[in-house]
Amino acid sequence: MLKFIIKPxxxxxxxxxxxxxxxxxxxxxxxxxxxxxxxxxxAKIYEAKGITxxxxxxxxxxxxxxxxxxxxxxxxxxxxxKGGSRIKVYKPxxxxxxxxxxxxxxxxxxxxxxxIKPECQEDYEPFNGFISLEGLKKWYYGEKINASDLLxxxxxxxxxxxxxxxxxxxxxxVKGEDGLYRVRFIRLEKGFRFVFWVELNNQTLTEDxxxxxxxxxxxxLKIGGEARTATYxxxxxxxxxxxxxxxxxxxxxxxxxLFLTPGVFEEGKPILNNFENLEYxxxxxxxxxxxxxxxxxxxKVIRAIKPGSVLMIKARNLSTPIDFYKPTDxxxxxxxxxxxxxxxxxx
Length: 347
What we know:
Layout: E1 2-8, E2 25-27, H1 34-49, E3 56-66, E4 69-73, E5 78-81, E6 87-89, E7 91-93, E8 113-115, E9 124-126, E10 129-132, H2 133-141, E11 150-152, E12 157-165, E13 167-168, E14 173-174, E15 180-188, E16 193-200, H3 207-214, E17 220-223, E18 228-236, E19 254-259, E20 263-264, E21 280-282, E22 286-293, E23 298-305, E24 310-314, E25 322-324, E26 336-341
C-alpha cells in the first residue's frame, strides 16, 4: 500500500454533485470525496503507463495530517458544550418520557434513540470538525474525549471568495453575457496536508512500478476543480496499521460503525433501508456525490451520507476494525467504516 501526503500550492475547489448555474455561487465541499484524489493519482499512472482501468484495489481517505498526526472526520455523536470545553458522546436509550421510538416517523426502522444527559445549566451542540487518531481511539473504547483531541473546521481551512469568468477557449473571450460567477475556494491553514492511501492491484501495477512513477520529478498532482496543482510525498505504508491497537469484544452481532468516508448505497431506496437490523443512527448529513469518467464513460450523481455518521447495526460479515460496508465500484473509497463489534452500553 502507498501513502501520499498531498500539499496544495494554492487554493483548491472540490465540487459535489450539486448543480452549478452560471451567475451563481459555487461552494467547495470539505472534506473532498475519495474519487477526487483517486482520479488525480490515476491520471499520473495513465500518463506514464497508459493503463485505463483495474489499477486500484482500494483507496483510503482523504484525511488530514499535521506534524505527523492524523485527523479524521469526527463522529457526529460527539457534542460540545456551547461556549465551553466539555465534550460528551450520545448514548443509546430505549425509551423516554419525551419521545417513544415507535411513535416517530421511522416507525420500526430503529430500536433506540441517541441521547445525552446534560447537567444543570449545560447546553450542548453538535461538533463539526475532525478528531485525532488518539481521540478516535478514546471514542472507540468509550473513554473521555478532551477538547485537545478535536479540531473545528475553522482551525483547518478558511474560505477565499473569487470571481471567475466563463471563457471561450477558441477565441480567448468571454462566453455569453451570463458568464460571470463567484467561487468559494478552500485554503488549508499552515501545516495541514491531505493524506491518502492507495492499495494497488498487483496484477495490473506493482508497488515498485508505481513508486518508480511517483518518485520522478516533478512530484505534482492536479486535484479538484480547475485542476489545481499540489505537491506530494509518497512512501510504502499500510493504512490499516494505524488501527492495530483498536480491538473489539467480538461478542454478538451488534456493530457500532463510523463512516470515515461518504456512505453510498442503492439508488431509489431510502438510505436507512440499506441497513438490516438498524438499532439507531446518528447521521452527519447528506450530500450529492458525482462521477464523470472519460475512460469508463460514466456520468452519475447519487445521494450519500456524510462522513462522521454513526450507526449501530447487526452484521456478521464486517471485519474489525477497518472495512468497507457494501462497497461500490462506481465511487471507489466510499463506505469506509471503523467497526466496533460488541455494541455499547445503554443509559
